[in-house]
Amino acid sequence: MDETESVPLTDGTPDPTFRLNGLQAGKVESMDLRTYLEGVVRAEMPASFEPETLKAQAVAARTYTLYQLRQGKKHGDAADLCTDPGCCQAFLAEEQARKNWGEQAEAYAEKVSEAVRATDGQAVLYEGEPILAVFHSSSSGQTRTAGNVWTNDLP
Q1: For the residues of the chain, what is the DSSP string, one character each?
Q2: What is the pTM of this model?
Q3: CA-based end-to-end distance of the chain
Q4: To the nearest 10°, the Cα dihedral for 28, 44, 51, 61?
Q5: d(CA 125, CA 60)
Q6: CB contact at 8 A, 112 and 38
């Protein structure tokens, strides 16, 4: 992300016009937000899930991305985000996803793309700022407040 460019929130900036730099396999790649989010949704959730579930994931991923960008942390000198799920969010390139999906590749690629397009610009905000939209795949039937997991509670 350019130093002078502001992070889009609710100003109607479409995902494809907003660029960021992602660190993937030690290499910095410039991509638009839509491309990044499609890669995150492909990696974080099975494309076989229902369309509304994929849309919810797209909104959560967009919100988390905007939150991270607003924090201004960098990965190395040039990257805004990385593709390490232990640090940022997982990311799966379209080519690899299509290989993984086999016969369903075309249908799944369209489902993921449509989920991100349909939610273009949607993020969860609190007092005008993106929330820390962390999530997990398994909870064993329980969740905890932020203060029990990190150092303080969040609204």
Answers
A1: --TTPPPPSSS---GGG-EEEEEETTEEEEEEHHHHHHHHHHHHS-TTS-HHHHHHHHHHHHHHHHHHHHHT--BTTTBSEES-TTTS-----HHHHHHHHGGGHHHHHHHHHHHHHHTTT---EETTEE------S--TT----HHHHSSS---
A2: 0.87
A3: 28
A4: -60
A5: 11
A6: yes
Q: What is the pLDDT of residues 32-74, one digit of tens each?
A: 999 999 999 999 999 999 999 999 999 999 999 999 988 887 8
72-95 per-position pLDDT tens digit = 878 877 898 988 888 889 999 999
Q: Which bin fits 59, alpha (ψ -120 to 50), beta or left (φ > 0)?
A: alpha
Phi-psi region of 126 (alpha: psi -120 to 50; beta: other; left: phi over 0): beta
154, amino acid identity: L
User: CB burial class (10 A; 0-12, 13-18, 19+) of residue 40?
Assistant: buried
| Chain-centroid distance, C-alpha 27 | 19
